[in-house]
């Protein structure tokens, strides 16, 4: 390694020669890029040589395939997003229709009925009730622990949806009365924090 002969400075290329070689290499690379790579890969034929050699057509096919692949990818993403939206909507709709309890009872003309939920103070219960054919008067109220409260009243109502927030521990629910001249059925759907349902009248 120490006996290697040093190159003769006269044999080394000069700076001018190196610069010339660099320029030639850069020019050749530019020619290859413009005349071959651009037509073959992207269908861009600035010199018309690519079309003569059949490279431009190949590049156009590649670009078309790339565009189609991108369109397919976007379509697949949209389909996945749509399916996810449909799934979420269906899940929410199903959840919205799941009730913990459901009961139906008939009221003859003039008859009344009272249904109560046994609830602790601060507990919450969702409800929905509706009549089969007709309207009822109702009083949503609570009693227990030596207290009583009226939450809401209505006359000639066909249906209602809402929430009971128990003001105290006790019984909370509805008194329904049929003031029409024909029998009707009331359906009551419930879910939430209550421990029992009972008919008190």
What does this structure look like?
The protein is an alpha+beta fold and 201 residues long. Strands 5-4-7-2-9 form a five-stranded antiparallel sheet, with no helix packed on it. A four-stranded antiparallel sheet has the order 1-8-3-6, with no helix packed on it. A hairpin with a 2-residue loop joins β4 and β5. The longest helix has 43 residues. The model has no long low-confidence stretch (mean pLDDT 85).
Helix content: 25-40%
Radius of gyration from the alpha-carbon trace, in angstroms: 42 Å
Shape: rod-shaped
Please describe the biggest sheet, giving its number of strands, its sense, and whether it closes into a barrel.
5 strands, antiparallel
Note the run of SSEs as H and E: HHHEEEEEEEEE
Q: How many beta strands in the DSSP annotation?
A: 9
> Strand order of the main beta sheet, please?
5-4-7-2-9
* Count, helices: 3
The amount of beta strand, in percent, is 35-45%
Uncertain stretches of 5 or more adjacent residues: none
Termini separation: 113 Å
- Give the integer mean of the pLDDT values: 85
Structural class: alpha+beta
């Amino acid at each position: 390694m120490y006996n290697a002969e040093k190159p003769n400075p006269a044999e080394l290329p000069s700076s001018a020669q190196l610069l010339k070689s660099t320029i030639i290499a850069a020019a050749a690379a530019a020619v290859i890029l413009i005349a071959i790579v651009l037509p073959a890969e992207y269908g861009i034929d600035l010199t018309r040589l690519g079309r003569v050699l059949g490279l431009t057509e190949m590049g156009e096919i590649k670009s078309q395939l790339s565009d189609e692949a991108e369109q397919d990818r976007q379509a697949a993403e949209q389909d996945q997003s749509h399916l996810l939206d449909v799934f979420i909507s269906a899940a929410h709709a199903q959840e919205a229709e799941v009730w913990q309890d459901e009961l139906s009872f008939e009221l003859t003309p003039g008859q009344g009925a009272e249904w109560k939920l046994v609830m602790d103070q601060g507990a919450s219960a969702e409800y929905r009730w509706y009549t089969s054919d007709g309207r009822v008067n109702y009083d949503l109220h609570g009693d227990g622990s030596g207290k009583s409260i009226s939450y809401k009243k209505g006359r000639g109502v066909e249906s209602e949806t809402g929430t009971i927030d128990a003001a105290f521990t006790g019984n909370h629910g509805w008194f329904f009365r049929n003031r029409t001249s024909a029998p009707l059925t009331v359906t009551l759907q419930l879910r939430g924090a209550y421990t029992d349902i009972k008919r008190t009248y």
